[in-house]
Amino acid sequence: MKIGVLGTGMVGETIASKLIALKHSVIMGSRTVDNPKAVAWVKKNGENAAQGTFTDAAAFAEIIFNCTSGVGSIDALKQAGEKNLNAKICVDISNPLDFSKGMPPSLTICNTDSLGEQIQRTFPETKVIKTLNTVNCKVMVDPALVPGVHDMLLCGNDDDAKKKVTEILQKWFGWKSVIDIGDITGARVTEMYVPLWVRMFGVLGTPNFNFHYIKG
Fold first, then answer.
1. More exposed terminus of the chain, fewer Cβ within 10 Å: N or C?
2. pTM score of the predicted model
3. Which positions ≥6 away from 118 have C-beta within 8 Å?
4. Which residues have a Cβ under 8 Å from the Cβ of 204 and sit 6 or more positions away?
């Protein structure tokens, strides 16, 4: 499959590298065609890896992973181009975190709105699916790093797109438990969970953890 990964940070590199390992063709997109991190990633990942602008990655892709920093996600997607996003699935992994005052970060959007919803409103013809934003990037693509059964949450407005992304999470990334929590407004709760994740990281001393819901 042709996949566009927007973002060159830890999340983007981890997702893109996993997809390359699964034999997909991936363009890592950034604001410039010759982003040094993207160039280095391509050199490490061989012939199925390429770099380009956000526009290049979105135009190439059958499915898009938004791995950009939350504060810049909408601008990055605008650079990608609405016509290149229309009718495509956009797996949104971003979180609206503000690190300007150091740690712990604060949320720039919460309670009555979410970044996932803002992306969906800005690009109404795109199938925005919010998921993977509640765990460390290595756990995203290798949930076995956390022992036992644990859960990945997913939300979005398009049922068929959610089924496709659930299949990706299960078959490509190895998630055994994926819970659909409804429409894109569910992004409010998954994004608001992230400050708790940051606090628990400090308590546990490892990013390799997750939650599991047990029905009584």
1. C
2. 0.96
3. 74, 109
4. none
